[in-house]
Amino acid sequence: MDIYIIISFINGLVAIIFGFLIFSKNWKNKINYTFFLMSASFALWSFSYSRWLSVNTALEALFWSRMLNFGATFIPIFYLHWILSILGTTKEKKRILFFGYALTLIFSLFSFTPAYISSVAPVRDFPYWPQAGFLYVIFLVIGYFGLVGYGLKELIKAKKNSDIEKTHQINYVFLGSILGFGGGATNFPLMFGIGLIPPVGQLFVVLFVIIFALATLKYHLFEIKLILTELLVFIMSIIIIVLFFLMPTTFLKILIGIIIILFCFFGYYLIRAIHDEVSQKEEAERISKMKTEFISIASHQLRTPLAAIRGYTSMLKDGDYGDLPDPAEKAINYIHESSVGMIKLVNSLLSISRLEKGQVELKFQDVSVDDLLKECIKDIRLVAEEKKLNLKYKILSKKIPLIKADPEKLKQSFSNIINNAVLYTVKGGVDVSLNKENNDIIVQIKDTGVGIEPEEQEKMFKSFSRGKGGAELYTQGTGLGLYVAKNFVEMHSGSISVFSEGKNKGSLFTIRLPIQAILDSRHKFNFTDK
Amino acid sequence: MKKILIIEDEKILSEMYNFKFTKEGYKVLTGMDVEEGLEKIKKELPDLIILDILLPKESGLYFLEKRKNIPGASDVPVIVLSNFDDKETKEKAFQLGAKDYMIKSNYNPKEILEKIQSYLK
Predict the structure, then answer these.
(1) Does residue B84 contact residue A300 with C-beta atoms inside 8 Å?
(2) pLDDT tens-digit readout, A5-47
């Protein structure tokens, strides 16, 4: 029984601390103050629970058991109000809330009457367990299971339309709800004289407040990881300390003492390591988000003046403003070409910002890789001919099956690599081949161009990364083509790799696409890996 | 003479398209925002509308919606010409009856003119 007194006291303490913490963070916010109200009623329940188990007379026990149930009566409605505040649907659901509050008010008015708690009676090891009156049964059905169940239903409904972060947040709230209300519910059978199972759920109830507090502050998952680690270390410490006092001999006490010291030492380093990891990841995420937002805004703003430069110079070129003197015509051509180049760059930046925001969606259909490669080669053939390069394409396998893919994205990937091969090759040629190997389709692009130094090969696929040799040869490259190609290929569950013996020794790019790909139409990228 | 209404708040772009289309023999009307655009079509129905999305006050989508209250205006083809390249906006524009959604910077006035001609055939 003592353990229940201690645990309930800890529950109350944690609830009130977290409640105030959240409230003080921003007390005007509806999510925060509803959380505070829920924590306060939770604390009243817990402290009264602890007190009720400590008293020695039936009369005192009856008073405190009524007090604890008075606190418990408010938990479901504050919980529901808090859930609806998180989901932003309090206005839509104001009738339900009104109904819940009215009902709670009625129950609370009867909290200290026999209609709610009729008496106290011995159940299991507890001498004074409160016994439910008829009103309490109604509270359990409508208040406890009804309001809480409605909150859970709303959570599940909201999950369908939520983004990944929100979905995780909802998952945690859901887990907390099950632990908290499920744990709390283990008290109820005893209120009807059924003592088959002890109220062990009481031990989990503390997790409910902590998990909810995290979700309220819209903590990221990493922070939840941190707090859960801290909590684990805390619980383990309590267990070891209790063990210390329970040990019968001095020798065992010393042994446990050593374990406590070691545990504190490792526990501290574990928490610190996770804390550092959290800070680093958050910083990386913040920077990446800022970068993506910046690119997106800058690109939109850049497009308008570029449209004007492109438009007016094209009209000057077309003679819409009359004939131009020769030198001017050349100058106008340069301005026009530069503006078109700049527009391509802006478009690439926008593609990347979409990729990094996870906004790129694939439209899958049956695709012939052979057809796509032929189209890519047709598009660049003129440039290759002008450069007197030998551009060849061959199919090495007899039968190449169709694959489920987004033709536009796949074509862009192939075309980025084939175009690079042509642009970065001065003499010789480019060989494109298509093959089937086991369950994969293999596309290889081999050139006799500038090659890539071994130390550069890995970073070639990062955004804004360009090989030294390539940058010298073709100054207008953006360093985005391979990055986009890699992401698109990976969205098709494929892979892309490069091999080059070094500078001026050509390159070989290999794209591997599974015939039976695991299709993921909305791919979320982990920026920190890039 | 076919009439084209350009709803565009960027003066230099509006002038550019106006010049090109007028030169090719079209009568061009212009509006700087949704309100002006709606007033123009109330007075005189054009044969085609070029519509920007990011406009002062209401967006181009609002124009697409409101034009339905003006008799005959729903039958006038609307080409959205905007630098705002957002999937949802595009979908919404098509739902509201836009015939095309072109990114301004990706096309020369001549190419836009060809597109217009294909709708005015």
Answers:
(1) yes
(2) 888 888 888 888 878 877 876 778 888 889 899 999 999 999 9
Q: Tell me the helix, strand and coil percentages in chain B, rounded to 5.
A: 50, 20, 30
Considering Cα of A335, then A337, then A338, then A339, what sign does the dihedral take? positive
CA dist A353 and A369 (Å) reads: 27
Same domain, A352 and A385: no
**Mean pLDDT calculated for residue range A94-120:** 93
Nearest to B23 among A300, A310, A320 (CB): A320
Residues near A463 by Cβ (< 8 Å), separated by ≥ 6?
A352, A479, A480, A483, A530
If one looks up domain B3-120 in CATH, what number appears? 3.40.50.2300
**Dihedral sign, Cα of residue B9, residue B12, residue B13, residue B18:** positive
Q: A293 lies in which domain range?
A: 289-357
Instruction: Report whether A325 contacts A454 (CB < 8 A).
Output: no
Is 0.95 topped by the overall pTM?
Answer: no
Is this prediction's ipTM beyond 0.90? yes
How far apart are alpha carbons B113 and A104 in whole angstroms? 68
β-pair type (A365-367, A403-405): antiparallel
Conformational region of residue A62, where left means phi above 0, alpha means psi within -120 to 50, and beta covers everything else:
alpha
Angle between helices A30-54 and A205-216 (to 10 degrees): 160
Segment among A329-338, A479-488, A518-527 with least mean pLDDT = A518-527
Choose among B17, B85, B110: nearest Cβ to A350: B85
| Same domain, residue pair A511 and A370 | yes
CB A41, CB A70: distance < 8 Å = no
Co-location of A30 and A144 in the same domain: yes
Contact between A447 and A430 under an 8 Å Cβ cutoff? The reply is: yes
Is the CB of B105 less than 8 angstroms away from the CB of A359? no
CA distance B14 to chain A (A): 10
Q: A419-449 burial by CB neighbour count: b if 16+ within 10 A, else e?
A: bbbbbbbeeebbbbbbebeeebbbbbbbbbb
Q: How far apart are CA A130 and CA A153, in angstroms?
A: 30
* Chain A touched by B109 (CB under 8 Å): yes
| Nearest CA distance, A424 vs chain B (angstrom) | 26
Strand A495-499, strand A507-514: pairing: antiparallel
pLDDT tens by residue, A43-64: 999 999 999 988 989 999 999 9
Give the end of a domain, one of A338, A357, A376: A357
